[in-house]
Design goal:
single chain; 530 residues; alpha/beta; Rossmann fold; 3 domains; six-stranded mixed β-sheet; 20 strands
Length: 530
């Protein structure tokens, strides 16, 4: 018998949910010293399966049947006190969003030592020493300062390493990793995946790794289970499932993994619609009594963009790509340089002069939920822009229905609120809102980074279809070279505010000249997935 044996597990949802069971008759084995991946889209039941193991099901969600045997003991029959002792000591979990899982008002050192002292009778000083050693083992630097820091002062990769250190602080037998790299840059993701795999081998732990990306599965797993709508559709070794998938859904998930191969030919040599010349943006940081520190987020950047062309801006967090986009659309004022739209320099226009041109450049944001007004219906969100520019409300609403059809949504949903849609649907609504103003230029800022791979593939195809139908110039921002390859004619690689290299996508992938670009390409997960 393996370390964990899930037998016919059923998890019931509360009345009024979209289906009666979140997990339906699931059986799964996690062997000792083994990495098992559960792969599936949002709503497949994979995370609730993990939460059932931890005894952390949400209120109203109950384990209605089956067994979860951990070393022969049925966890579903364990009293709450016994489960509290097991959490951290025997079974630990790395959550998807470390910022939400970490206490924002408690220093990192205190958060790591809290769990250690809850299970072991040791002093605060000794626990802090152990915490520092753990953080060092995670590859973190300047440990003394880090222990005194708060979560908001750390990067996403640092916060995830802190979460891993907390999970490993009591040397559990089973580590559950719930989408631990979904929102990270590809290079940081590669580091975290390598770290988890190394620690698993060194400590001979069992790992249950939850993901929606078969690229990650290929890099991490010994065996894999594919879930959909609460059921396991197929399972087996990675070689079996990747090499000869038996279910059409598995084949669809594998096909949706971006290949990192350029599909588009170089764009025709036409007159640029947008020209950015030596653009610079600086931020000054510092308190009232502290000397200000200047950070150059965009450093002397130039680019051109033509109608019908997609230019990808690729780089890690902090590279300056989103700041560059916000300067081009004039959500930020640049400190130097030009942004020419059809020859007019919008970088230095006054607000009154800029108004008529704003509708020509529109933006699709990374997080559509935070960029959509939660109190407005979709119809109001889509029509408010055209109405501001004087369009008749009835005509705007009729055109909103046409745009919704264009992006693959039913016009009858116009009376719904944003929270009634899935993440992929909200991203389509964000695109529809941008298209309502009939723009010439569309800026897409990380529009698919938080989406499942199948939804990601649909949104990428939609963006490219819309570009062709409306002859748009598109600036596509991403940290993932695989994604850039699918929709971009040219790629511009940025690091620390500067352009590292630029050129046709095919050339960048085939013959990268920069070591940084080579590192981005090497960090692509599951490059053997074909």
């Amino acid at each position: 018998m393996g370390l964990v044996s899930i037998q016919n597990l059923t998890v019931a949802l509360p009345p009024g949910a979209d289906r009666p069971k979140a997990v339906d008759d699931v059986s799964l084995e996690v062997g000792r010293n083994q990495i098992v991946c559960i792969v599936g889209e949002s709503g497949s039941g994979k995370s609730l399966t993990a939460h059932a193991i931890m005894g952390l099901l949400p209120r109203g969600v109950t384990a209605a049947g089956g067994q979860i045997l951990f070393d022969g003991v049925d966890l579903l029959k364990e009293p709450p006190g016994a489960m509290r002792k097991r959490r951290g000591r025997d079974i630990a979990m790395i959550f998807q969003d470390p910022m939400a899982a970490l206490n924002p008002v408690v220093a990192i050192g205190r958060q790591v030592t809290e769990q250690i002292r809850a299970h072991r009778a040791i002093s605060e000083a000794e626990a802090l020493k152990q915490a520092g050693a753990l953080l060092g083992e995670m590859g973190l630097k300047d440990i003394e300062s880090l222990l005194k820091s708060y979560p908001h002062q750390l990067s996403g990769g640092q916060r995830q390493r802190v979460m891993i250190a907390m999970a490993l602080s009591l040397s559990p037998q089973l580590l559950i990793a719930d989408e631990p790299t979904t929102a990270l840059d590809v290079t940081t993701q590669a580091q975290i995946l390598k770290l988890i795999k190394r620690i698993q081998a060194e400590r001979e732990m069992s790992v249950l790794f939850i993901t929606h990306d078969f690229g990650v599965v290929a890099d991490m797993a010994d065996s894999v289970a594919v879930m959909r709508h609460g059921r396991v559709l197929e399972s087996g070794t990675v070689a079996e499932v990747l090499g000869n998938p038996s279910h059409s859904y598995t084949r669809a998930l594998i096909a949706a993994v971006p290949r990192g191969e350029s599909q588009l030919p170089p764009p025709p040599d036409v007159r640029p619609l947008v020209q950015v010349n030596k653009l610079t943006k600086r931020f000054r940081r510092g308190g009232m009594f502290a000397p200000g520190k200047v950070n150059t987020a965009v450093d002397n950047v130039s680019l051109t963009l033509s109608r019908g062309e997609t230019l990808g801006i690729v780089g890690e967090s902090g590279s300056g790509k989103s700041t560059l986009a916000r300067c081009i659309i004039r959500l930020l004022d640049p400190d130097a340089g030009e942004v020419l739209l059809d020859g007019a320099d919008i970088a230095h226009m006054k607000p009154g002069e800029l108004g008529p041109l704003r509708r020509r450049i529109q933006m699709v944001f990374q997080d559509p939920f935070s960029s959509l007004n939660p109190r407005q219906t979709i119809g109001d969100i889509l029509t408010i822009g055209p109405r501001i520019y004087g369009e008749d409300p009835k005509e705007a609403r009729a055109r909103a229905a046409d745009i919704l059809r264009l992006v693959g949504l039913n016009p009858e949903t116009m009376n719904r609120l944003p929270h009634e849609f899935s993440g992929g649907q909200r991203q389509r609504i964000g695109l529809a809102r941008a298209l309502m103003l009939k723009p010439d230029v569309l800026i897409a800022d990380e529009p698919v980074s938080a989406l499942d791979v199948t939804v990601q593939a649909q949104v990428l195809q939609l963006l490219d279809d819309v570009r062709q139908q409306m002859n748009l110039a598109m600036l596509f921002i991403t940290h993932d070279m695989r994604v850039a390859a699918q929709v971009c004619h040219r790629v511009m690689v940025m690091r620390h505010g500067k352009i590292v290299e630029t050129g046709p996508t095919r050339d960048i992938f085939a013959r990268p000249s920069s070591d940084y670009t080579k590192a981005l390409l090497a960090a692509i997960p599951g490059r053997q997935v074909r």
